Amino acid sequence: MYTRDPIFWRAGAVSSLTVMVAILIALTVNTIGVISTGGANVPPYTVINQAIGYVDDDSQHEYVPTIGGSDPLFGHVYDEHQAEALIREGKLVIQSRACLDCHSVFGTGAYFAPDLTKAWLDPVWRQMWEPMTQTHTRADAMVAFLMEPDKYPTWTREMPNLHLSRDEAKAVVAYLKWTSSINTNGFPYGFQADPDTPKGKQAALR
Amino acid sequence: MTRVPSLYSSQSLALRYFTLSVALFGVMIVFGLIAATKYIHPGFLAQPLPFSMAKIMHIDVLVLWLLTAFMGSLFWLLPSEFKRDLVGMRAANVVFWLFCITIAAVAATFLFVQYGPGTDKTLWLVNQGRKYVEEPRWAAIVVAIGIAVFVYNIVGTAIAVKRITGVTWVIILNLIPLFGLYMLAFPAMTNMAVDQYWWWWLVHFWVEATWEVLIGSIVALVLMRVMNTSRNVVETWLYIEVALVLATGVLGIGHHYFWMGAPKYWLGIGGFFSALEPLPLLGMVIHAVYDAGEHKMTNQPAFYWTMLEAFGNFIGAGVWGFMITLPQINLFAHGTQWTASHGHLAFWGAYGCGVIAVIYLAVQEAGGYAQIGGRAWKWAFGLLNVGMYGMGGSLLIAGMAQAFYERAIGGSTFNAFVAAQQTPWFVEGIWMRWVFGLLFAAGYAILASNLIAISRRSRVAAAAPATLAVEGAGTR
Amino acid sequence: MTPMGFVVDAIGLGFFALFGGAYGLLYAASELRGERRLGYLAIASYAAQSAVLLAVVTLSALGPIWKVFLIGSGIAYYFIPRVTLRYLKNLHASGEIHS
Hints:
With 476 residues, chain B is an all-alpha fold. Chain B is 77% helix and 0% strand. In chain B, α2 (51-82) packs across α7 (192-226). Chain C contains three helices and no strands.
């Protein structure tokens, strides 16, 4: 009986692997196009110059990011190269401080501290950290907090001081602003973005 | 009269790898307990050791104890497949010591240096900050060289003997992607979506493909020794297992691509293929029951740990995975303690139990014992499993509370996160996890002392009568 | 999907898989040991799995495609232990002859 012959199953293993890998490669080519910077789901780094929101889109039955009018970060408009350099530095800081061994982005990382996918849009910056750090913008509050988190404890789990320089902290803030603009298929669900986000003319990302 | 078998040199190395592996298992538990304590008392060791570093040690050492155990298993089992010693053993011995030095150096870096400025230099020398592969690049290069030498040990031997069994074919063909995928431990892509896309190739295809095939092959070799199952049967079953694992597991990677910026079709593809994954695991359970009923066992602890591997895999990967794998549910459960619960049970069931089985087999064969007596291994078996399933259950409760209060009701903001972490369900779940963690640690202590006792006895075996009951135990 | 709905669905799916596994385990054990009592427990497990399936299919907010998938999966759970066990018996019978 052929099903009792190892050769039959060996052929089965090889064919299932071949077919599945071929499909995976095709999907990978497509996916990389979609998730590359400037792809359908991932805005270019210069999006940090614009207002970003996160709204419940009835037509899609899910939360989607919105890209609005001009909202320069730290009062500065970054060109393509500057924005890329800033975001690249932000990623290096995130890796060098092992941020994702307490936090997560897109839900991947560790679960000791909040997910940062939409951290830029969190109303808590305006509600809690702006008064605490005596700053007047969300971006400045984030920088002040990231540089000396031990000075602004919020609850029992205090973020340790990881000795970020001002430039490093700004780069991380830019990174989180860019991350919040990525279309993540509705994750996180029900996130109520800061209502004070400058709206401008908004268009939902598809 | 005692007959302590003379060992192939690769088997002597295997015993060193097993020693390293069991030691690393202990290190993993220590840092797991520290991390678990920090959930209860965040101030515990906060100054010298932030949570992130305890967590890195816990998770990276998890990878290492399993990887070193896999290497030890193949060094132990393969000489009898090839009917000769493995080639390149001098290099393999150098690699072993290189691994030891590297692990110690990286641990010291994580514990005392911890992080550095946001430059490439930090990624090379201190911390890469990517989950599971935080080791600095220099250390990742050492690991890559080590794996390359390991591949050479096996492939070189296969070429030298010019006769390869089906199981060794599977092992060889599997080691190539295992090595190749590790190259994804190095990049630091700026775009987090693209970074995570490739990082999941490394993590998913190691854990849910190449490691599955590797442990399947190792268990196949163990079954032939422990239960005298015929080669034809073992190889046929291994091919079936490989076919099913790859048929569901390759596109099952899609369940990691739901929320990281990837196209929507991954919701359907990932959900469908990963929801199929319990079905082959059910087949493994049936096989385990069949083996338990049909065969005469010659090594009790190895037998029980092998059986538990099948059941544990079904529970951890099958049941726990199935709960959270459909995208509608994963939207809330993803990235919570629920995931941690699934991770603990799946690693334990799929790999932890399997490698403990092989280590018991090796110490028994090395000592030339017909049976491993006493009650110690049963206590270890009981406590480790009560501890692990207790931890899994506790984290499940905490995770459900987190998913409900933070994700579904609270909308995942900072305040929602904090509120969920303070709910009684979460707090009690985290406490229970800590208590079961202690039980697990107690089980480990008994396991380690039992293995040490057996090994010591074998070293002074001239005084202890025993016979070599297992065929192909490396005598020559 | 409501907050409570997703938790209940997840628990339902967990029990669905768990009862399916219990059925497989008990079925195989009863066949191999020839114990009728285990056979009854196996049937009870499969009945419990079917009941969970029915509850999920009728009450859950999961989409129709996922429900069809779950029904198919429930049917597969019934046959996998039988087919696997029969196959293993035949395989071992022929394996002993070969080896």
